[in-house]
Task: structure prediction
Amino acid sequence: MAGRRGRGGGRSGNSRRTAAKAIEQMPWKQLINIDQPTEPLRPEGVEAIHSGGMRILEEIGIEFLHPEAVALLKEAGCKVRGETVFMDRNWVMEMISHCPSQFTITPRNPDRKVVVGGKHMAFVNVSSPPNAMCLDKGRRVGNFQDFQNFIKLTQYFNCIHIAGGYPVEPVEVHASVRHLDCLYEKLTLTDKACHAYCLGKERVEDVMEMVRVAGGLSDAEFDSAPRMYTNINSTSPLKHDFPMLDGAMRMVRRGQPVSVTPFTLAGAMAPVTLPGAVAQSVAEGLAAIALLQYINPGVPCVLGSFTSNVDMKTGAPAFGTPEYVRATQMSGQMARFYGIPLRASNACASNAPDGQAVWESMNSLWAAVQGGVNMVYHSAGWLEGGLIASYEKFVMDCELLQQFQRYMDPVLTSTAEDDIALEAIREVGSGGHFFGVQHTQDRYENAFYSPFLSDWSNYEAWEAAGSQWTAERANKIWKNILNEFEAPPMDVGIREELQAFVAKRKEEGGAPTDF
Result:
């Protein structure tokens, strides 16, 4: 097994080629957020939201639609009334004190390990839309080819650190075996950390086994450290359903991380006031995390924030709004108060890769930076409030992510003597320019961010080149990327073992469904 692991590894899809690359991108690097977080809440505001969350847990309660979870919480001393559980704040704080503030997920290629927590930021691909979209074919129901294409884009872009949920649902693949086909593609077309959906025990157990096999790991090696993760959502308001709890409980029993993300849209599934919505989100998230820590103290957990607002005229979800930004910043304060890593999203409500999509996504990404978010879901490709995975938006978002990577580069704020550049200033004086001085000549190639999508030419040059708008340039780029894509290497024996597992589970019927 050790020998097989040694032959594993991988690289981004374009790294083998030295010519005719689709783009020149920045190298694989996880972001370190060097900025101080924005904290809109004063200390008494943090305490008020904490107190509100604890009172929800103590006085109102959370429904757990899972008999074993209810039994475990009763065993732990929580008050139970049917499926509603009431948790003492001291017990909750004791349980969450076991959460590590930082942990590392190591996928089959250890060079792609990801740190979650502290000052680290990890970007995750778009996950779970039922529809795909591109300029050529428009909006359509997702299929397996679209799924594969988005997985290839996920692997190709170095600014995407985690291959999260399905970037688009391949609806023509039957739900009983979809997880088998999708995870096989994900584990062979990428070598990045991946995710399991909590949709019944078979899916979670199958994915854990496939990740173990792909990594060339024994059961003990898999269980000894985070190799993958899952994300569960509460059914807001104030409820955790059976499938997600069941999957999360199975994951933590094997030491694998769980992100708990309440879906608290202010004005619909949560109070219309942001502090009330965040307090509810904190209560729902900590309730599940406390359960998971009771099951396996010290298992990595992430507190998710998905607090935004709805359009009060139509009831439609809105994202990238001023309220979303503030809620994310406030959630960051609460996560730091509890010492738990934070997850948020690059969310937008736009129906096309247009200006609205860009400003809403930029708002969401700045909220993540300012809020100290550690895991940014849907970082590339999300449209229509999560109903569309867009090829062009994927490329556009990766341009933004690279710009944030450059923004966080410590070289930009270096104050070494040569960076102050007094001699260059002296040489140029008051009447010259800096283009030709040696100080510039020594640094010009890497002095500033170089975009792969933005067009910095003047109007005449842009017009002569075809007057292409941003989405049109992105359309050309993703096609070139797919044309040159090469999957990361995988040991032949491991690939055959994965294929055999998938075939066996399909013969057994895969996962049960309702249809």
In short: The two ends are 39 Å apart (CA to CA).
